[in-house]
Design goal:
It is found in: Cytoplasm. This protein is an alpha/beta fold. The protein has nine helices and seven strands, in the order E-H-E-H-H-E-E-H-H-E-E-H-H-H-E-H. The protein has helices at residues 21-30, 38-46, 53-59, 71-78, 82-106, 139-147, 154-163, 167-173, 184-200; strands at 9-14, 35-37, 64-65, 68-69, 112-116, 131-136, 176-179. It is globular. The chain binds dephospho coenzyme A (COD) and adenosine-5'-triphosphate (ATP). Adenosine-5'-triphosphate (ATP) is lined by residues 15, 17-23, 118, 145, 180, 182-184, 187.
Length: 202
Amino acid sequence: MTKEKKRQTILGLTGSIGMGKSTVAGMMRDLGVPVFDADAAVHELQGPGGALLPAIEAEFPGTTGPDGVDRQKLGAAVFGDSEKLKRLEEIVHPAVAAMRSGFLRDNADAPLIVFDIPLLYEKGGQQGLDAVAVVSAPASDQRERVLARPGMTVEKFEQILALQVPDAEKRARADFVIDTGTSLTQTRNQVAGIVRTLERAE
Ligand SMILES: CC(C)(COP(=O)(O)OP(=O)(O)OC[C@H]1O[C@@H](n2cnc3c(N)ncnc32)[C@H](O)[C@@H]1O)[C@@H](O)C(=O)NCCC(=O)NCCS
Ligand SMILES: Nc1ncnc2c1ncn2[C@@H]1O[C@H](COP(=O)(O)OP(=O)(O)OP(=O)(O)O)[C@@H](O)[C@H]1O
């Protein structure tokens, strides 16, 4: 019998606003794991000279300029209005999917790769993933972290929370729960354990 070629494991990484997803993604990169960052892709597509600026300006006049999308303005337009948010997603999501395919091609030989997808459960992005890790912390930590951010208000935080699948449901559906309500060292150790397990997975 020929030995089957070890296939690649694709881990989805997600979590609600302020749960520590970016920090955990950074820890995975430090361990040498290629991470596709959906949010960074959105920033690139919406930044200065970004490919989506003409489409966004046509749909949401006055929200783009030489520096790209004015995220405060566009956020204010869409976060309280589900129809507008849907129209924005129809512009953004196909372009992100195309960048993700390119990343897959570029990292075809890595034993483990990570897709950092903030809205994985909200938008049904589980397709093609072998496992999902959810970053999670107590709601009080989440609130404190988010409200400390410049430009954040209680109203905006609550609008965003209402758009997201509840943390408890994400935890229940995940294969791994990464706890960020502890010290950074404890989280880093937990992340290293998961990466070791998945790099060995066949
Ligand atoms: C409206 C925009 C410009 C606001 O940017 P801003 O920098 O103010 O907020 P940021 O992107 O950091 O999002 C803040 C929080 O809202 C959440 N969020 C963003 N978009 C959505 C959405 N479509 N549905 C639910 N939650 C969302 C994020 O996960 C995050 O937790 C931006 O969020 C956007 O373009 N969203 C639509 C594209 C999208 O779905 N992006 C998510 C990653 S693929
Ligand atoms: N154990 C921990 N693990 C991860 N983050 C922690 C921990 N303890 C404290 N923090 C802090 O919590 C914050 C988490 O922010 P981070 O940007 O990683 O969240 P996020 O989930 O990516 O947010 P968003 O979805 O809103 O972009 C950081 O400032 C980080 O230093």
